[in-house]
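General statements about sequence and structure are easier to judge against a single worked case. In the encoding step, the backbone of a single protein was reduced to a row of integers, each denoting a local shape. The record that follows shows the chain in one-letter code together with its fold in token form.
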Amino acid sequence: MLSKVHTDFSTSSRPSWRMSRSLFQGATLPSSVQAALRNAGYETVDDVAGVSAEALSAELGISVKDAENLVSATQTPKVPRMTQSAASLARMNVFTCKYPAVNKVLGGGLLRSHVLEISGPPGSFKEALACDFVQAFVQAGEEVVFVDMQNMTSPHALSRLLESMPSAGTLLHYIRVHTLPDILVFLRGMPSNLCPKTGLLVLNSLSFVFQSHPDLSPSKKNMILGNIRNNLLEACVTRDVTVIITSQMATKILHPDGSPATFDSGAKAVMVPRLGIKYLPLGRSFRIIIVPQSRRSGYIAFTFQTHVFYINMMVQSREACVLARPSKYSN
């Protein structure tokens, strides 16, 4: 039996945020590097945490040496907090699922305190992949909060998935949230809404709650997405929580040159993740797009900053191989 979290969605809950250190405050970085960081949307030290020098060099268009100096300048000694227990220090830092294609494209598995967005059309195994990681965290003895926004995964289905694990009933917490205001209040109160030993937060069908607000202006939506990004970053940095988000796809109409178009002027249509990238913390996020070809095979498009990698996904045999070189990616 799953234990259900009863959350009070009152607006009186207000977390006390701690501002992340700015990349530009008292920085000794060359002006060209600072300009490249600003153009790419990097603002704080946390934004570049976990990003390799090679990746920064490729994305920002700076030399590898400058990227290495940037990484070195933003690193701080990782001294464990005095309040951390020995058990928390011994926790796993990489979690794998049963699909080698996914583990391979994530560089060996999902990193702790990072965000993974899983997008795909209806019928793709977004929720199944998220639940696979739920199993991995529960097997490691970590608590999981599963927030469902479209009734796509029922408590009964999760119970069956974890029935062989005696401790699942105390480690897995299921919440139903169906409106945008409720999920925003939940995320604002993240520190108090998550259990002290929570290792994984799943936001299932996050894009669904936005569909009931088609009247949101672009500026208002961008502001909301920015707030969600800050909430997710806070959970990752201060609570060491890993976040998995499932999202639906949206149709994007393009001109022949790839620029945005309308239904009347467009030459082609492509499917893209519905929420874009503005809500994902820079330097801490992975995006996987599932592209099914049949019931048992398809592709994974793994988007990393400015590139997309296509991985063959044989669902039946769970094998993987790289099919194409990276191509320019624009959201």
Summary: Residues 218-239 form the longest helix (22 residues). The mean pLDDT is 76. The two ends are 41 Å apart (CA to CA). The first strand starts at residue 3 and ends at 4.
